[in-house]
Amino acid sequence: QLPSGQRFLVTAYYAGGSLAERLAKGPIPFDDAARMVRQAAAGLGAAHARGIVHRDVKPANLLLDEHGTVKVADFGIAKLLGATSLTRTGASLGTPAYKSPEQSRGSEVDQRTDLWSLGVVLYELLTGRKPFDAEYEQAVVHSILAFEPQILETADGRLVPEPLRRIVSRAMAKDPDQRYQRAGELIADLDAWLRGETTQPIPTLSRRSTQIALGAAVVLSLLLAYTGSWRGPLLHLGVMGPVGGQPATPADDFEIQLSNGQHAWLMGNTGEHLDEAEACFEKALALRPESTKAKGLLAVLKVEEFILWHREEDQDQLDALLEELRPLGESAPLGLIAESKLSSLLKRYEEAEALARRAISAWQTCAYPEACDLGYVWLGEALAKQGKYEEAKAELESGLLVGGGRIRCRLKLAQVFEWEGDFNRASTAYEEVRSIDPDQTTMLNDYGNLLLKHRDFTRAAGLFLHLTTKTEDPVAFYNLGNAYYGQGLWEEAFAEYENAEQRYRGRGELTPVTAIAFGDVRAEQEDDEGARNWYRIALERLEERLASEASGLYDQCRHAVVLGKLGRLAEAERDIDALLENPPKQGEAFIWLSAARIAALKQDRRALETSARRYLELEPEPDRLKDDVAFKAYRHDSDYTHFLNSVMEDLQRR
């Protein structure tokens, strides 16, 4: 305190700068890196003994004195263990690249979060780069939650010794219970290394798990957005030696573009993410036009886009890519994956299965094993489509251990559970993805649709509302409208359908789906004239589509139902009867659902019950025989409800 009464704080001055500044000067010898982290661990251990968690351990906060001894600084966001926090629930303090998984999620933390961060610091000192790095914070957090870090060779080509890899692996275990529990344990292992002793080995995985994890090592080299390409040993297995005998190469724009594209793709199948992924893959291909890796990733992405949007330009580009990849066979496994996805699309599921199996086995001999992750996803789908659900689930469970499979395979598992009719396990799989990445857009959309299907409209609305903060995709707003519609919130539903319509128009599309939705809302509100106006617009849009090659069975069914809603029942019956003369296996249920809607509009009880029964035999979803406005007169009809219940009971007995 000064004589004037003013108070001040005196802190030590350390002349050696920070570890961040030391890193910027060039490579750090392994012994020096271990010694520096050991000293930092001692400082943190002293804080932990007093119940203090630092929560922002990073090179910039580790200072060097004039003798080179590390001092832990900047306890500005430290917290006393057990103290009440004023930070809002879910908030996450700290520097993204150094935060533990639990800290990244905004969960409660203890001293083990500092030991994770110190593991990241050790990783960076050993290799010269961060294990989790990207251009934007969300991608960093996503990597921390979804992927395992890989030890790289250093920038000057040195291999990180196996004992140090084990130490980093334990410090950075996703599960805090598998981590060092106290700073003293980390210090003991570092001291053993510095004395030339062997650290405690990490439990060995089974042979199958080892093979899968070894594949994951290279898959993750693309998925993690650090600026480096991995050619070195796998962190948690202690595998020595470069992959394929190839020396390490510095990170370049090509690898960065592939990495960023994979990241964007893994965030979800919305237009924005897929467009970003496509742009990155095309930039990579422009940098290396001969790269089968870039061609393969782009080919698989193009199949995804074609499935979603049926754009002719996607098919043309896909055909050109596959023409180049097909002759390469197993040396271009991503080409096999693209072919597998196409075969599934064409319902050639046995062929799709064989192609996916070839892709999975090919990663062991090719220079880039990304196919392993995507291979399990599409193998699982091909098996499930053949009714081999148990085998599909087993393969997808294996795929969980591989790269992006932690998310992709869980999403496909959820879909398989849904196809089996197991709502609870499907929900659990979606919740697992949600715990890894709460913003994953495919999960938000598909989970929301599952809840819509099971009439949990309130929870579905919550997911879709969150989705609309992450994407401008019109489907997200349309589905949010459906969730409000299911709750009888007509104006809220209409507003979201308007949001969807606006975004479709922004893409140059005039879709009949939103026009039908507008008409249905007005019909629910008994605004007959407003409903008819929108149904007329829907009919115009449908007829434009039917006149082009862009339409299909679903548009034909919608056309018939809209005719019925406009009172043109004879035409509606004629059109739907024509479809029922030779119904395709894929889509037959929708034809019978449309026939039931037309019969309900006509108030033909006998035809309604016939169509409803046939629909339920194909799709046991009785609620869909009430939710459309066409069934408005039957929603509270006890005889109709009894009929639906009796059909379901009969089907269950069978």
SSE-based structural type: mainly alpha
Find the count of extended strands (DSSP E, 2+ residues): 4
Number of helices: 30
Described by its quaternary structure, the protein is single chain
DSSP helix fraction: 55-70%
What is the first-to-last residue Cα distance?
A: 88 Å
Cα-atom radius of gyration: 29 Å
Characterise the protein shown here.
The chain is mainly α. Helix content is 62%, strand content 2%. Strands 1-4 form a two-stranded antiparallel ribbon. The longest helix is centred in the first third of the chain and has 20 residues, at 30-49. The protein starts with 18 loop residues before the first helix and ends with a helix.
Q: How is the topology of this model organized?
A:
Elements (H helix, E strand, L loop, with lengths): L18 H6 L5 H20 L2 E2 L8 E3 L5 E3 L6 E2 L20 H4 L6 H17 L9 H10 L15 H10 L11 H12 L12 H17 L29 H14 L4 H17 L4 H18 L2 H14 L7 H13 L3 H14 L8 H15 L3 H11 L5 H16 L2 H14 L4 H13 L3 H12 L5 H13 L3 H17 L5 H13 L3 H19 L6 H13 L3 H13 L6 H15 L2 H14 L5 H4 L10 H16 L1
Antiparallel strand pairs: 1-4, 2-3
Helix pairs in contact: 2-4, 2-7, 4-6, 6-7, 9-10, 10-11, 11-12, 11-13, 13-14, 13-15, 14-15, 15-16, 15-17, 16-17, 17-18, 18-19, 19-20, 19-21, 20-21, 21-22, 22-23, 23-24, 24-25, 25-26, 25-27, 26-27, 27-28, 28-30
